[in-house]
Write a structure and sequence with these properties.
Keywords: Membrane, Transmembrane, Transmembrane helix. The protein contains 8 helices and no strands. It has 215 residues and is an all-alpha fold.
């Protein structure tokens, strides 16, 4: 019986990680309520998720808000840039879609390629901010380089988010299911899955005798 409830028991370790992800999900959602704080919240979410993947046993609440505070300025700037670019290219794509002709077909393809590259870089930039000490320009530059340099991982994450997007638009039931899961544990589980990829990617850039990752 004592072994069953021992912290070294794989089942208890699993339950502990599930609880951590549930708590992390709630904190992330609450910290995103002011729209402008989403960038810092994403950085903090990735910071804690990466530590969970690497089994560093972080303090979830304390660690989240520490990472949130240390990455607030940089995360907010990157978030606002990302939102501005999204609306800019979405507006351009809508205009091109309303036009007929081969020229505008080519324009739509180019815009779609740009949007996909920006989306890939968006996946990488907040984990980079959370893990490394670098300027905003360096973080954005490295996000573009990594998303192209580690294309298999990028495609895996695209497939994952593609499945989520498909479920959101497939039917009302699947839409409600995704929203319900997201409110319970979806954001933290997604971050955890993505950071399994990022942990392997970052190993190639981290020094062999790694100091504590930057918050």
């Amino acid at each position: 019986m004592n072994r069953l409830f021992s912290l070294d028991n794989p089942f208890m370790q699993f339950l502990s990680k599930v609880c951590d992800l549930l708590i992390l999900n709630v904190i992330f959602i609450l910290s995103c309520i002011p729209f402008i704080t989403i960038g810092a919240s994403l950085a903090a979410l990735n910071s804690i998720s990466l530590k969970l993947v690497r089994r560093e046993d972080p303090y979830i609440v304390k660690g989240f808000f520490k990472a949130f505070a240390s990455n607030f300025k940089q995360g907010t700037v990157v978030w606002l840039i990302s939102v501005a670019l999204f609306f800019f290219f979405r507006y351009d794509y809508m205009i091109a879609s309303s036009m007929k002709g081969d020229l505008f077909f080519v324009v739509r393809l180019l815009l779609l390629m740009i949007i996909l590259v920006l989306a890939a870089a968006f996946l990488y930039v907040f984990p980079i901010i959370a893990h490394y000490v670098c300027t905003t320009r360096q973080a954005i530059r490295n996000a573009f380089l990594m998303c192209m340099g580690h294309l298999p991982y990028t495609l895996i994450m695209f497939v994952y988010f593609g499945i989520i997007g498909f479920l959101l638009f497939f039917s009302t039931k699947t839409f409600g299911f995704v929203i319900a899961i997201s409110m319970i544990c979806g954001f933290s589980i997604t971050a955890y899955i993505c950071n399994i990829c990022f942990s392997r990617i970052f190993k190639k850039y981290d020094p062999e005798e790694e100091s504590d990752p930057a918050e």
